[in-house]
Amino acid sequence: MKLGLIGYGAIGKHVEAASLDNIELVSVLVKRPRKEGLLTHEPDRFFAHTFDAVAECAGHEAVRAHGQRVLEGGADFLVTSVGAFTDTALFDRLLAAAKASGKRLILPSAGIGALDILSSAAVGGLDSVTVTVRKDPSAWKGTIAETLVDLDSLTEPKVVFDGPVREGARLYPQNVNISAAAAIAGLGLDKTRVVIVADPTITTHIVELEATGAFGHFTFREDVAVSEENRKTGKLVAMAMVKSVRQLASPLIVAA
Predict the structure, then answer these.
(1) Cα 96–97–99 angle (5° rounding)?
(2) Which sign does the torsion angle of CA 228, 230, 234, 235 carry?
(3) Is the CB of residue 173 less than 8 Å from the CB of residue 194?
(4) Residue closest to 20 by CA, chosen among 222, 180, 250, 252
(5) Check: CATH 3.40.980.10 for 2-109+238-248?
(6) How far apart are CA 197 and CA 204, in angstroms?
(7) CB 224 within 8 A of CB 236
(8) Where are the beta strands (DSSP E) in 90-245?
């Protein structure tokens, strides 16, 4: 299987370094000129290759700029920046491209677990889904949270957003893609609630998922270490992406 990567940061580097049986990494598309192995900043050079799948690890703009081209070129498209799909027109366009080409738009579990339970529960009907994302103040630097609170002087947890995922994922594009994945798996972007917290009492990323419906009720909580390369991202995201890529060529799929 021939794989392409879009992005070479905290996630992409780990995918490249991983042991990927039966998968050949063909090319990596980056933003700025780089003279390293498979890296190129030229989209046309990247898309001159033939891919079976392309994994996006670069942010919302990469999904908007390259997603349709990936699918129309005959490759499955794995998206980590799921928050890009708060743009309904973009989501519909990529779904249409996937259908027309007979390929798949794949939303990996990435930084959040329990999507298998949530999507299963959605079959029977969901009443409510809430995702709470807690990160230390440094993770919210460079976001709208800086206009709402003095992140450097926080001494106790502060809610910086509480509302529908469509708005929360749009306002915090680098931090809460996991909430968009949960929303698409369950009640949708407008009916799923996300609570975003800047918490100076923690050094990890804590995500809680709570859902009720015809199936009953469940809660899920993860407390994950922060990536050394990017404090906005948990280490688990890169690990999960490696898992998803490996499954593309694996004879065994667990938790599909």
Answers:
(1) 65
(2) negative
(3) no
(4) 250
(5) no
(6) 12
(7) yes
(8) 105-106, 126-135, 158-164, 193-198, 205-213, 216-224
Place of tokens 């975003």: 196
**In CATH, what number does 115-233 get?**
3.30.360.10
* Calpha distance 150→147 (Å, rounded): 8
Domain ranges of the chain: 2-109+238-248, 115-233
Could you tell me the pLDDT band of residue 256, with boundaries at 50, 70 and 90? low
Block residue for tokens 């060529």: 249
Q: What is the mean pLDDT of residues 18-43?
A: 90
* Residue 218: CB atoms within 10 Å: 14
The predicted model gives 3-22 an average pLDDT of: 91
**What pTM value is reported for the model?**
0.90
* Bridge pairing between strands 126-135 and 205-213: antiparallel
Host H or E run for residue 5: strand 2-6
Task: For tokens 């999960």, name the residue.
Answer: 240
